[in-house]
């Protein structure tokens, strides 16, 4: 019960929002895109926050799912549902094939390799115009229908994506608190020690990489059906960086943090629109400022703030271990 | 065919020289502070744009003065970045610092957008636009400026790090902060110098190529990526490796654009980079790292 | 048959030969110590025994099976566990979770069943919880069970590492300098812990600079110097071996008991 209390709170909030703010653009339109971002951030956080493997190319898997669905439905007339599965299968296989060699790399080399992977996928999407529509993208992607219930309004998309988000959050929470989740966190903490405890670190990294890719792919397919249109811009390396930012901003190794980061980073530009020409500059400034002052991320930052406010000062803790290997972070 | 390849090589070396300078900037900052500075490309943009701005119009400065001014402005930006964004976040994890520098690059781009708008700008060519014949290939005089300028800067940096006290001190900072402090090196100032130098290199790259490639507020993004690729290809933390990586990347891109497909040239560059990393996980000239336990 | 049988073991890094042609046998259910001056190659030896380094030559047989060529997690599966000279804690987890990772080999759920939290997961969680607690209590750490690892003193962490290794139920436990950095009381506790571990039937291979501790707990001792075997035998034999005395006194003043 306690393990999932945050989950129930989140579920209640997601369910209540449309009733508190009916017909609100920020809930049904921006909210839907925040939901998709949150799904992506939660999946990336499994890989990055928990397993400590940085990826600057997550948008590629999102794009692969989206384009598989877009191509199969518009060019070959498929029903949307199987395209989600085919997209996930395709993305999963690609992720599996690249995972081993890529995840052997560490730190900045891993960052570079995943960045490169994302850019390569983006270029392929742009260049294979005969299939993908090139830079113009593909339109008229059909919407989803669930047993005759057409997902054809913003409200209905909110329900679908809200449900999917809660499902993904639930999966992530389950994983973290299990043998496999501890293996992930262990290899982040110390790769040799994890190996020595019998964890096949290479296989574990591959597993979480593929899992994160699968989730991203499904999110991509849903995105394609929801937008009814896809173009390469949505899957550029900027978006990958944005996803990483969501995870770090919310707080690495916290599922709720990832959700929070996604929500903030989705709403922030919407709010900054009023600043017009200053928008980009202010966005960059806020990003820098938050990371400088809350390097642990907002979620932990806020938690600590709450703790300080609600509890009287405690005596200083036991002396800290003299050495903390630089195993935190992604290096 | 041979003439064509010669042409691609010349283009490749020109482009590669720019990448090399940006890569060198990455390597210097990485060496001094273990930070991968994703706003490195922005230095190039600021250098190019401010040179254009300073020399523009009837009241503009002569080119050489505008160039010096632009380098100084960019150095100031670089040092401010160190002082106000990187230094306060000391001890933050690698990813956090990466995000800070990305935030900084967005910020700088936002400022550039405010100041200069979205237009493209070009600097006049330094010495005419009459192409020079080499065999059956041609080369712009400006490309020679780029190559020569890059070569001079690289040699200067090489000399600086190997033969001057200041240069050696900067490298010492990265090896061991405490020890550096003990032998009387002021780590804070060294870091400022490193960021200033790195910014200056970026700015000079920006000024050298501005007549050929034009600049706009967002030219830094791609150059930053290429510079990072160059530094990784050569092996992070090895300045001359970054230079070699940059040249190699320029050549690969130009050859694949000419011989295979210009649309895929960036992809081919990255594919080769990935292949190199698969076989040499620390880049071409990087030292393999072993986890000692 | 010996539990561990090391033959002709050699490894070099660049030009430095860290272990040269080393051979020794560790009998079942004993505390077997490996000593030698700083840089003698003890940690390197452990790294080869646990599959982290691959020797250039030689063989390491554990219960008759070859270790060389296996990856560390495969070696762990054979029943070898270890602690590290430089702490290798999972600082991003609680003490309990650290030790639960030690139960990895005794549990079997997968990512996919964990994601859906199938019923077997609950049972497995309860089981590893119990095992981890047991190991923690065995090491005298019940007070720290729910603490985050990054808030604990060094001496406690050393024992958490041991608890984590024990949670794997190894047949052979490699301990790399368990008493380094401990104060006198903690060292005594460590001695008792090593004895208790040995009593449960687990064989212990011990690297340690504290000679007092080594002499008190070891059944046999191997001395290496510059990667080569200098002497081997019972503690009394080693103590009186002139070659050993010279290696230590000639080098550093580490023979303080
Ligand atoms: N990965 C490596 N690369 C290069 N040299 C290494 C490596 N690992 C160990 N060495 C070298 O092998 C030699 C033995 O080192 P080792 O750490 O095994 O000594 P030790 O006996 O454990 O010393 P101590 O008592 O100080 O822990 C040293 O010269 C060390 O520098
Ligand atoms: Mg050692």
UniProtKB/TrEMBL annotation, chain A:
Record field: transmembrane: 26-47, 59-78, 84-103, 110-130, 157-176, 206-224, 244-268, 280-302
Membrane topology field: Multi-pass membrane protein
Any one Gene Ontology cellular component term annotated for this protein: plasma membrane
Gene Ontology molecular function terms on file: branched-chain amino acid transmembrane transporter activity
Subcellular location field: Cell inner membrane
InterPro entries: ABC_transp_permease, LivM-like
Protein name: Branched-chain amino acid ABC transporter permease
Biological source species: Sedimenticola selenatireducens
TrEMBL record, chain B:
Pfam families: BPD_transp_2
Predominant place of localization: membrane
GO molecular function: transmembrane transporter activity
Transmembrane parts of this sequence: 6-29, 63-81, 93-116, 144-161, 182-210, 230-252, 264-283
One GO process term, biological-process aspect: amino acid transport
GO CC, alphabetical: plasma membrane
Membrane topology: Multi-pass membrane protein
Places the protein is found: Cell inner membrane
Sorted UniProt keywords: Amino-acid transport, Cell membrane, Membrane, Transmembrane, Transmembrane helix, Transport
UniProt-listed InterPro entries: ABC_transp_permease (IPR001851), BCAA_transport_permease (IPR052157)
Entry-linked PANTHER family: ABC TRANSPORTER PERMEASE PROTEIN (PTHR11795:SF450), BRANCHED-CHAIN AMINO ACID TRANSPORT SYSTEM PERMEASE PROTEIN LIVH (PTHR11795)
Family: Belongs to the binding-protein-dependent transport system permease family. LivHM subfamily.
Protein name per Swiss-Prot or TrEMBL: Branched-chain amino acid ABC transporter permease
TrEMBL record, chain C:
GO terms of molecular function: ATP binding; ATP hydrolysis activity; L-isoleucine transmembrane transporter activity; L-phenylalanine transmembrane transporter activity; L-valine transmembrane transporter activity
GO cellular component: a single term: plasma membrane
InterPro entries the record matches: AAA+_ATPase, ABC_AA/LPS_Transport, ABC_transporter-like_ATP-bd, BCA_ABC_TP_C, P-loop_NTPase
GO biological process, one term: L-isoleucine import across plasma membrane
Protein's name in the database: ABC transporter ATP-binding protein
Classification via Gene3D superfamilies: P-loop containing nucleotide triphosphate hydrolases (3.40.50.300)
Coiled-coil residues: none
Pfam families: ABC_tran (PF00005), BCA_ABC_TP_C (PF12399)
Organism lineage string: Bacteria, Pseudomonadati, Pseudomonadota, Gammaproteobacteria, Chromatiales
Keywords: ATP-binding, Nucleotide-binding, Transport
Every ABC transporter domain range: 4-251
Biological source species: Sedimenticola selenatireducens
């Amino acid at each position: 019960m306690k393990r999932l209390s945050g989950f129930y709170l989140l579920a209640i909030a997601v369910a209540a929002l449309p009733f508190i703010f009916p017909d609100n653009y920020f809930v049904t339109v921006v909210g839907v895109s925040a939901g998709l971002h949150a799904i992506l951030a939660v999946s990336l956080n499994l890989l990055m926050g928990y397993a400590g493997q940085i990826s600057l190319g997550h948008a590629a898997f999102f794009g692969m799912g989206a384009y598989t669905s877009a191509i199969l439905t518009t060019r070959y007339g498929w029903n949307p549902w199987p395209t989600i599965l085919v997209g996930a299968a395709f993305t999963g296989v690609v992720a599996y094939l690249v995972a081993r060699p890529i995840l052997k790399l560490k730190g900045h080399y891993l960052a570079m390799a995943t960045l490169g992977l994302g850019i390569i996928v983006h270029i392929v999407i742009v260049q294979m115009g005969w299939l993908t529509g090139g830079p113009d993208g593909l339109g008229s992607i059909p919407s989803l229908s669930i047993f005759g219930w057409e997902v054809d309004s913003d409200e209905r998309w909110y329900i679908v994506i809200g449900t999917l988000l809660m499902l993904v959050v639930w999966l992530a929470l389950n994983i973290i608190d299990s043998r496999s989740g501890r293996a992930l966190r262990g290899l982040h903490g110390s790769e040799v020690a994890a190996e020595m405890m019998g964890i096949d670190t290479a296989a574990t990294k591959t597993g979480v990489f593929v899992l994160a890719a699968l989730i991203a792919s499904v999110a991509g397919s849903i995105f394609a059906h929801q937008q009814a249109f896809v173009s390469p811009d949505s899957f550029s390396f900027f978006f990958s960086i944005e996803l990483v930012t969501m995870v770090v901003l919310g707080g690495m190794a916290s599922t709720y943090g990832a959700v929070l980061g996604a929500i903030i980073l989705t709403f922030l530009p919407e709010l900054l629109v009023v600043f017009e020409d200053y928008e980009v500059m202010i966005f960059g400034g806020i990003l820098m400022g938050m990371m400088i002052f809350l390097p642990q991320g907002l979620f932990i930052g806020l938690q600590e703030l709450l703790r300080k406010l609600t509890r009287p000062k405690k005596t200083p803790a036991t002396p800290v271990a003299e050495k903390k290997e630089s195993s935190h972070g992604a290096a | 065919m041979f003439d064509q390849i010669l042409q691609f090589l010349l283009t490749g070396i020109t482009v590669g020289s720019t990448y090399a300078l940006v890569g060198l900037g990455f390597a210097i900052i990485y060496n001094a502070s273990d930070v991968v500075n994703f706003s490195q490309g922005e230095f190039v943009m600021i250098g190019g744009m401010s040179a254009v701005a300073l020399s523009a119009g009837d009241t503009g400065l002569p080119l050489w003065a505008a160039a010096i001014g632009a380098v100084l402005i960019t150095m100031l930006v670089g040092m401010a970045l160190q002082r106000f964004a990187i230094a306060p976040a000391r001890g933050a994890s690698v990813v956090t610092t990466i995000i800070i520098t990305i935030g900084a690059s967005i910020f700088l781009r936002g400022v550039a957008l405010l100041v200069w708008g979205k237009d493209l700008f070009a600097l006049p060519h330094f010495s005419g636009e009459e192409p020079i014949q080499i065999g059956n290939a041609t080369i712009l005089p400006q490309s020679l400026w780029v190559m020569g300028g890059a070569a001079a800067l690289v040699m200067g940096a090489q000399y600086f790090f190997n033969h001057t006290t200041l240069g050696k001190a900067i490298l010492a900072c990265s090896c061991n902060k405490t020890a550096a402090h003990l032998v009387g090196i002021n780590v804070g100032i060294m870091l400022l110098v490193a960021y200033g130098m790195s910014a200056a290199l970026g700015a000079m790259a920006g000024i050298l190529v501005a007549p050929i490639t034009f600049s706009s507020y967002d030219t830094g993004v791609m150059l930053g990526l290429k510079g990072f690729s160059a530094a990784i290809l050569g092996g992070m933390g090895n300045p001359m490796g970054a230079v070699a990586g940059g040249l190699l990347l320029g050549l690969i891109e130009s050859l694949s654009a000419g011989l295979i497909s210009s649309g895929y040239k960036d992809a081919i560059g990255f594919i080769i980079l990935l292949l190199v990393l698969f076989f040499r996980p620390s880049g071409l000239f990087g030292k393999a790292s072993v986890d000692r336990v | 048959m010996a539990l561990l049988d090391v033959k002709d073991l050699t490894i070099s890094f660049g030009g430095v030969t860290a272990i040269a042609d080393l051979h020794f046998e560790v009998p079942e259910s004993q505390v077997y110590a490996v000593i030698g001056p700083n840089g003698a190659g003890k940690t390197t030896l452990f790294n080869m025994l646990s599959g982290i380094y691959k020797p250039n030559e030689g063989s390491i047989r554990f219960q008759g099976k070859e270790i060389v060529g296996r990856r560390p997690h495969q070696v762990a599966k054979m029943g070898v566990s270890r602690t590290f000279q430089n702490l290798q804690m999972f600082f991003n987890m609680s003490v309990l979770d650290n030790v639960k990772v030690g139960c990895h080999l005794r549990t079997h759920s997968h990512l996919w069943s964990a994601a859906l939290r199938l019923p077997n997961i609950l049972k497995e969680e309860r089981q590893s919880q119990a095992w981890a607690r047991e190991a923690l209590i065995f090491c005298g750490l019940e007070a720290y069970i729910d603490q985050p690892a990054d808030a604990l003193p060094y001496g406690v962490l050393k024992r958490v590492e041991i608890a984590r290794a024990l949670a794997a139920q190894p047949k052979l436990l490699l301990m790399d300098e368990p008493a380094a950095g401990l104060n006198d009381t903690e060292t005594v506790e460590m001695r008792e812990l090593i004895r208790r571990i040995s009593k449960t039937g687990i064989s212990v291979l011990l690297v340690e600079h504290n000679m007092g501790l080594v002499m008190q707990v070891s059944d046999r001792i191997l001395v290496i110097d510059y990667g080569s075997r200098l002497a081997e035998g019972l503690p009394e034999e080693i103590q009186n071996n002139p070659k050993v005395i010279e290696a230590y006194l000639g080098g550093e003043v580490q023979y303080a008991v």
